[in-house]
Design brief:
The protein is an alpha+beta fold. The protein is built from four helices and 15 strands.
């Protein structure tokens, strides 16, 4: 597998792209409230990304029609923003922002509460955040990809949740998606070794019910098969000798 090892100048470009994506996500998240539409989110992402000198990486990617993925309630990932999709009190929504800046990409997402969350929403969102952080915590030069998946899956299972298996993290740099695939389930000590200078995303999708998912007829939107809530958090990280640098904090 041919995996990019970033040189110092590329690492600095990745820091700028990651920071831009994180700032856009934060700015858009602060505007979320009941009765906003997911099309509003798409417009805000376009405007904020342009203001920071970037381009939405997702726009047009393999035909994707929007600048951001907006995944609400039982939507696992790749939700397409729509004018007729209105955020209602009690909803949760994941906003997934990827910014290309000066030829490099930063990728990040978070799940937000709309109004007062239910106990179930609080639980799955908290578990998803902790799963991401557990995956990030094991990243270092010489660790294996399986270590990431195992750390994530252990927390989800202990909390009565499940982790989506069909989609996961990925390498990132001059392209939004690069090798390796970063599974969010796995076995410690298995899989490819990480090397300092690699950039990857860690982005577990955690379901309140079964891990099983299906894709809607639009060819993009993935939903939980049982209709249960799903939450996700994502960081882009740079592998270092003694750990990792979170580029989208």
């Amino acid at each position: 597998m041919n995996v990019d090892i970033l040189r110092p100048r590329a690492c600095e470009a990745m820091r700028r792209a990651g920071r831009a994506a994180a700032e856009t996500l934060s700015a858009v998240g602060a505007r979320l409230r009941p009765f906003v539409t997911t099309a509003d989110i798409d417009q805000w992402v376009r405007e904020d990304t342009a203001r920071r000198g970037g381009r939405p990486s997702q726009l047009g990617y393999k035909g994707f029609p929007a600048a951001v993925c907006t995944s609400r309630n039982h939507v696992v990932c790749h939700g397409i923003p729509r004018r007729d999709e209105v955020l209602l009190p009690g909803d949760i929504v994941n906003v997934d922002v990827t910014t290309e800046l000066d030829g490099y990409h930063g990728d990040t997402s978070a799940t937000f509460f709309i109004g007062e969350p239910s106990a179930e929403a609080l639980h799955v969102v908290d578990v998803a955040r902790r799963c991401r952080d557990a995956g990030v915590a094991v990243v270092r030069d010489g660790a294996r990809l399986g270590d990431i998946g195992a750390a994530i899956e252990e927390i989800a299972r202990a909390e009565g949740c499940s982790v989506v298996r069909e989609v996961g993290g990925h390498g990132i740099g001059r392209r939004m998606h690069l090798p390796p695939h970063v599974a969010h389930t796995g076995v410690r000590g298995a899989g490819m070794r990480l090397r300092a200078g690699m950039a990857i995303t860690i982005e577990p999708m955690v379901n309140l019910g079964s891990h099983r998912i299906r894709t809607l007829d639009d060819g993009w939107t993935m939903v939980t098969e049982d209709g249960s809530l799903s939450a996700q958090f994502e960081h882009t990280v740079l592998v270092t000798r003694d750990g990792c640098e979170v580029l989208t904090r």
